[in-house]
Amino acid sequence: MTVLKTSMRNFFAHKGRMALSAVAVLLSVGFVCGTLVFTDTMNTTFDKLFQATASDVTVSADGSSDNGQTVSRTGKPPVMPASVLGRVRGTRGVESAEGTVFSTTATVVDAGKDKLSPSSGAPTIVGGWNRNDARTMDITSGTAPKGPNQVMVDADTAGKHHLRLGDEIGVITAVGTHHARLSGIAAFRVTNPGAALFYLDTRTAQQVIVGRTGVYTDVNVTAAKGVTDARLKKNVTAALGHTYKVRTAKEVADANRKSVGSFLNVMKYAMLGFAGIAFLVGIFLIINTFSMLVAQRTREIGLMRAIGSSRKQVNRSVLVEGLLLGVIGSVLGVGAGIGLAVGLMKLMGQMDMHLSTDDLTVAWTTPAIGLLLGVVVTVLAAYLPARRAGKVSPMAALRDAGAPTDARAGAVRAGIGLLLTAAGAWSLSTAATADRATTGSVWLGLGVVLTLIGFVVIGPLLAAGLVRVLGVAVLRVFGPVGRMAERNALRNPRRTGATGAALMIGLALVACLSVVGSSVVASATDQLDRTVGADFIVEEDQGQVIDAPAVEAVKRAPGLARVTEYKVLDASLTTPDGRTTSRKTVNAADPAYARDVRTKTVAGRLADAYAPDSMSVFEGFAKDHGVRLGSTVAVHFKGGRTAELTVRAITSDDAVIDKGAMYASIATAARYVPADRMPLDQSVLATAKDGQEKTAYRALKSALHEFPQYTVRDQTDYKQELKDQIGQLLNMIYGLLALAIIVAVLGVVNTLALSVVERTREIGLMRAIGLSRRQLRRMIRLESVVIAVFGALLGLGLGMGWGATAHELLALEGLTVLDIPWPTIIAVFVGSAFVGLFAALVPAFRAGRLNVLNAIATD
């Protein structure tokens, strides 16, 4: 009880000094809990949607995907004949069954040809209105679609795009463009996370999506009373055989959940990773706080030991303070996490992903994890200062002397740190010289961890050296004030090292990712310049196929020297060694593709692979299967016949564009695949006549005006788009890393604030002998700047080393250009100096306000 009272008294006596550490715990726990609440809420939202929209049993056409996405190389979804519906209705245990047709590859536009697709990446679904939809949606305005001239839309999409009854809508599919007017608006009874839904009557949907009636993509089956979904599935399967995909409502929901869950898990663990970084940085702040508080109470600890307190009691007293800090910070963090989750939901709403606070999910595990993490991390961080406090002898403490083993412990620490750093450097070197990216990535991860820990451990040693260099280069310019700032930073290298290390972690990751991102962009740009000979490429925005009318429009555009079609066909291959591969793809293109994409070969010429009954294979495939020039490979085209193709070229694995592709000509594929089974073009490449690049670019844009689902890009567009995508990803990562940097800044503020308290008498004496308030504040600001710059130098140097090593692994995948983004590195370095200035504002202001006489009298 005495230990608890002492701890409580000390904790609340220094509550102002504990506040910043509590904020660090709060931010870290809040980020963890916010991530868990946000992802749990998203899971709840999708689960409710999947459960509400699935029928008891669903029969899907052969070839349909598990998650309901109707992706097809022909642009049309897989279908089944209407006779299946009759067979299902006659099955025992079926109360009712209804056929439906839908597509997730259609594009919907308004009267101005602006796309009505979600910007969040959610699907646009066009289908026939049916009883299953009516069970899960309410028509809030107008009526359900009746006849070919009517279409209905979901309420969220109508609200976003300001659609009104009577507005004209265009539905673009592989069949063509269908125009209808808005007849109704329907709202989900559960939350729609962001999909755009458009409903036609079933007959019209068949014509628009498939091009003919009498077929369905799915049959929704309702079980009779007393019949379980499992029994109904068994009965339907017995009636239909295994030609079609039959699934219960739970199986459909699980498949959808698995599809969405993979994305949510990536986002969840990425965010938790950044929260972990913030926790790591917070550890330094807490260690520094307790170290300085223990140092300031050295004499008090000596008196406690002198009157009978044991080493364990002193140790326990500091740990109890850490426990109090952890509990308070964690409890506040759990509340902040729920608020953060709500904020993230509002932010996602701005990005077209709708989440309702009605579905807010706070599992009991979330606060439990937050409290456990916050308390454990805080107590562990307080352990080292507590242990150090317990080791101080009573007489040494009464003399204000440190532990006698400090020097020896520092030497041991430096030795361990150098050993770890050397091991990390060796791991990075091994990663850089690895032959395989998968092997190298393991060594890279180990090297990152070891060098990071090594730099943290040898922080005091590095601080002693680097701060002196910075003092000569920067601080000496400010005369005596600069020299005093240098001396203050060097007074306790362990403290300076720990404070700088907190900032180092975040900046090291920033530097590493900047190097990797910049190198990826530079390498891809270099590959584009060296490999792509075509001037333009036409693609569908969502990676779907291009229909024949659009291809014809491209061919009619003036100013073009040639147009090259490019298709992807599903196939399996039987090689000369008698082995049949699992499902592969063969890329079929016009012969001009060999000039449009200059793919390096290790044997033969790629142009020869476009000769009749010829093909190319890639280097790795050739080695694995003993394929050589002149070998014959049996290609079993899906939906067609088997072709015996002669290998005329072997392409290099050292490629980025079309890496691992096998080529043949479209004419060869057409001999073995019926016209109605031949896939549509995956992309179309075009080359302008000499000197007519700008004219041809405008002509292509104009020719595809009637096809808004397709985009024309030249090489400049591609480079800029790649740069923008990498930039957006890095900006998002930098935003998440900002949490760790904020915690590190709090550490600098806390260190300086406690340092001012620690040096109160010294400050009073300096003021008494003539140091002005302005000089005092400048001294503290310079000390803060040198600590921040020290951390920046460590972080940027370490991060660029990690990034350069990661680039060596990227080079194994064909991304060979190393690009150091010096503007970003310099901006971060300069920004670190400003961070130091900002962190010193409050401590410098408080130091300047100290009363000289009271300061001198401080014991």
UniProtKB/TrEMBL annotation:
It is found in: Cell membrane. It comes from Streptomyces dangxiongensis. One of its GO terms (molecular function) is transmembrane transporter activity. This is FtsX-like permease family protein. Residues 60-80, 113-134 are annotated as: Disordered. Its main location: membrane. Residues 274-394, 736-851 form the ABC3 transporter permease C-terminal domain. GO terms for cellular component: plasma membrane. Belongs to the ABC-4 integral membrane protein family. The chain crosses the membrane at residues 269-295, 318-342, 362-386, 407-428, 448-478, 499-522, 732-757, 782-802, 822-845.
